[in-house]
Specification:
With 261 residues, the protein is of the alpha/beta class. 37% of the residues lie in helices and 16% in strands. The strands form three sheets. It has a five-stranded parallel sheet. Strands 6-7-8 form a three-stranded parallel sheet, with helices on one face. Strands 1-2 form a two-stranded antiparallel sheet. The termini are far apart.
Length: 261
């Protein structure tokens, strides 16, 4: 497997940007934004998006065919482990036995902060049931490690609250999570603009999942293109290894020997 690919649940992806499909004005704009982002994995809120459960209505499957994209059904809008498990079992039926899912169990409708106790309960059930679980959680390093040990194939701590666009509020926690993880760590929630995405990747995140940052921009298609570049630039900077920070430098960047006296 290449160092340049994102590897999740035994499959490799060239793009490290995962994009949500909600909040666009219509499915045509959704498709245009996803194309501009270069994303190969798209998240789908089963409770809000038609993928066949509402016969006779436009289906996302027509605009983003599953043979072109890896679907990541999620449990947006679920506030208990039972609800989340039921939702993902429905998704598996609708998508012909599809196993890769995104688990999120929310604790509060105002902040959409995760309920980590219910998240852990749901993760245990889903992993035992054969799902490949990518899990949204708080940026608590202990909880992230527990979710990994349960068997989640990726942990996705928030950078800041869902839909807030506040960027990375606690880079130090993210660094601890990344340092201790043996599975991919992706930032999920809180990215607002391209620089936020670049910083997350520079910290060593394996990828980023976003929705509102693109769908909520004045020009979603242009923002999707910006995010694609930011994720790639941040990854390259992380691999390159930045120079050490110094308060000042007495070492000129140009050679001083051999100068004409």
């Amino acid at each position: 497997m290449s160092m340049n690919t994102l590897n999740i649940a035994g499959k490799s992806y060239n793009s490290r940007l995962l994009v949500g499909t909600g909040k666009y004005k219509d499915f045509t704009e959704t498709r245009a934004a996803i194309d501009a982002s270069g994303a190969e994995i798209v998240t789908v809120a089963i409770r809000r998006t038609n993928i066949g459960q509402n016969a006779g209505e436009p289906s996302l499957l027509e605009y983003l065919p599953p043979e072109e994209f890896t679907y990541l059904p999620n449990t947006a809008g679920c506030y208990s482990a039972d609800d989340a498990v039921r939702t993902l079992r429905l998704a598996r039926e609708l998508l012909d036995g599809h196993k890769l899912v995104k688990l999120e169990v929310l604790g509060d409708p105002n902040t959409l902060y995760p309920n980590v106790i219910e998240t852990i309960k749901a993760a245990e059930v889903l992993v035992k049931d054969g799902f490949d679980v990518m899990v949204y959680t708080s940026d608590d390093p202990i909880i992230c490690k527990q979710l990994e040990e349960i068997g989640c194939c990726a942990v996705m701590p928030l950078a800041s609250l869902i839909g807030s666009g506040m960027g990375i509020l606690n880079p130090w926690n993210l660094e601890i999570i990344i340092e201790n993880a043996k599975v991919p760590v992706l930032v999920d929630a809180g990215v607002g603009t391209a620089s936020d995405a670049a910083i997350a990747m520079e910290l060593g995140c394996a990828g980023i999942l976003m929705n509102t940052a693109i769908a909520g921009a004045n020009n979603p298609i242009l923002m999707a293109s910006a995010m694609k570049k930011a994720v790639e630039a941040g990854r390259e900077a992380y691999l390159a290894g930045r120079m050490a920070k110094k308060l000042y430098s007495a070492t000129p960047s140009s050679p001083t020997s051999g100068l004409i006296a």
